[in-house]
# Entry
Amino acid sequence: MDAGDRAVAAGGEAGSVTPASYNHLAAANGQTQANVSASEVGVFRFRATPGNYLGGAMGGGLSAPTGRFYPDHFALSMLDVGSLASQCSASPGNAFTYTGQPFGWQLQPEMLIEARAAGGTLTRNYTHTGFRKLQASNVQRTFPATDTAALGTDGNPLTLLNTHADGELLVQAPGQLRYRFSAGDEFRFDKTL
# Structure
């Protein structure tokens, strides 16, 4: 059996099928089950090429389009942690933001999202037009509720409020997406007595 005659978008990767072959054992119902995996995502046609039976060649077959196979998981890594902007500047090198004053990103963080197969290999077909289902609105980010480096007069970490918007999700390379945090993300230290 092989993953020939793929039905993925033009230029898509056929991937590999594991195991590449198996022995069809005798069974009362004529069926044998084999655990098979594909290293790529998409829709495929699988070709079965049987060996000889009692000295005679057997005809093979080609499956109907099978799938849609999808990634097992996504791997995330930070490309740039970004930096926060100050809203006021008394002099160069002395920038600050008042408590209660909204602030945002000076440089938006970016992360790499890779579509991966169960074995950990990159699934390059995932980013082909029509196959990618991950949208920017699906990327969930969690921001801290307090700033442990900034303490109030009571000695407790300052409460950090935030509002955020969907970032930007672009294809970086086959199987890889670049997510840039939104320029509309906004933070504010809660101003209390």
